[in-house]
Amino acid sequence: MVDVTRARSFESIGEEYDRYRPGFPERAADIIVPDRVATALDLGAGTGKFTGLLVARATQVIAIEPSAPMLAVLARTLPTVDARPGTAESIPVPDGSVDAVSVAQAFHWFDRDAAAAEIARTLVPHGTLGLLWNRADPACAWDLACHRVAHPAVGADDDTSASATDLPGFVLEIHEEVRWTERITREDYLRRWGTVSSFLVADEAQRTAMVAALEAVLDGTDETRGKAEFDLPHLTDVFRYRRA
């Protein structure tokens, strides 16, 4: 069951999401769109974190996003992209008009079956669907500890990519884990957590307590203690499907 309050919490942010959220590795786009296509659609595109990787891989790139602030950032930073308001359950494109659809860090917020049917409608026969999620590298104990602070109800072992299994109307072709590392400042790392749903729906006292707990983790870890910036490992799960 999708938590509607948390799902809609992102609708009020745009600049902050674009500034502090991580991007995605080029390898992820290579998996989803290995060859150039006529039309690619990024669904739940946010501020264009993944959309930008599609520009060199498609003649036309369409971005669909329900949040007006996020869509405004995307339209400004990626002016060649056709940015449209819309949702995964009602995609504003004709039947069979898209060669590849990507969903980065968003599919778990969708009505799974309705979204799968709608995505299938938009795709050409045997078109491609790519789902991807960034998650904490299991080898990075301090980042996992911060995940437990931000998501106490589910902990660091929560796997949003679980919604990618047995997708109706699609056949899974590839699942690949891509490891990569980001150089990030301590300030940006802390601000990043302020853009996740648990922080956005929390009251001021809860947010203050969570930030203090995050700072305690960073102050208690050799890799981050006293450092203005540090390396942050990521793992990106990439799933590529073919329309059945």
Automatic annotation (TrEMBL):
Please verify whether the record's keywords include Cell membrane.
no
Taxonomically, which superkingdom?
Answer: Bacteria
Q: Which GO terms describe its molecular function?
A: methyltransferase activity
Task: Quote the Pfam families the UniProt record gives.
Answer: Methyltransf_11
Q: Which InterPro entries match?
A: Diverse_substrate_MTase, Methyltransf_11, SAM-dependent_MTases_sf
Q: What is its EC number?
A: 2.1.1.-
Biological process annotations from GO: methylation
Instruction: Report the residue ranges that make up the Methyltransferase type domain in this protein.
Output: 41-129
UniProt keywords, alphabetically: Methyltransferase, Transferase
Q: What's this protein's family per the entry?
A: Belongs to the methyltransferase superfamily.
Q: List the PANTHER family.
A: METHYLTRANSF_11 DOMAIN-CONTAINING PROTEIN, METHYLTRANSFERASE TYPE 11 DOMAIN-CONTAINING PROTEIN
Put simply, this protein is called Class I SAM-dependent methyltransferase
Q: Which organism is it from?
A: Microbacterium paraoxydans
